[in-house]
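Progress report, Aim 2. The chain analyzed during this reporting quarter is listed below.
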Amino acid sequence: MVNALITGTNKGLGLGLTKSFLDKGYKVFATCRKMAKAKELETLSKTFPNKLKILEVDVVAPNAGESISNFLKDEPIDLFLNNAGTIGLRGQGFGQVTTSDWLEVLKVNLIAPLLISQSIIENISKGSEKKMFFLSSKVGSIADNSGGGMYVYRSSKTALNQVVKSLSVDLLGNRISVVALHPGWVRTDMGGPNALISIEESVSGMIGVISRTTLTDTGKFFNYDGKEIPW
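Predicted structure tokens for the chain:
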């Protein structure tokens, strides 16, 4: 049985990824911020009582990494999917950005993923696949930025990409692959109703990328359809 750890699973892409991996026979360790708002996830746990384990944790809490480590215990983790993220407030144009708004997004999108990674690295090292994927965004690509604005969200994903790159270098000796993954513009609460693709399309594409990538792809940035995105 392959073990996966997925953060931010109460709705949207996180929930969709959880469903798909359970259907594929994975054992999924899922984190969510508020179980009271995770009714579908709770229902899944009744359908897959031996394959889905849920931890209620806020990834920005001071003890989040320790809580997740204790939750996993000595379980090997073959696949880590850092999905938890936030877009922040909608007003992110020049002249609208505030320190407090920016820091809140950086805590979720940048700092938490690295701190969690540090806490679970022994579990990853014990896994057979040794894959780490961080859901990033194409808007974090400096080369692709032709529209400006979105200072808070763009910068948080650009910085996350740098974390991914550094992790890919630092963990190469452990034969752990680390990849940034863009899910596409998806019809979720974050993406909005006018987004281009459904959750199902995004999840299917991302799982395809996840299954195909090897250690030779570590440190790269992929679109959900498998195309490489420039940093």
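The longest strand covers residues 27-32. The CA atoms of residues 56 and 219 lie 30 Å apart. These observations will guide the mutagenesis work planned for the next reporting period.
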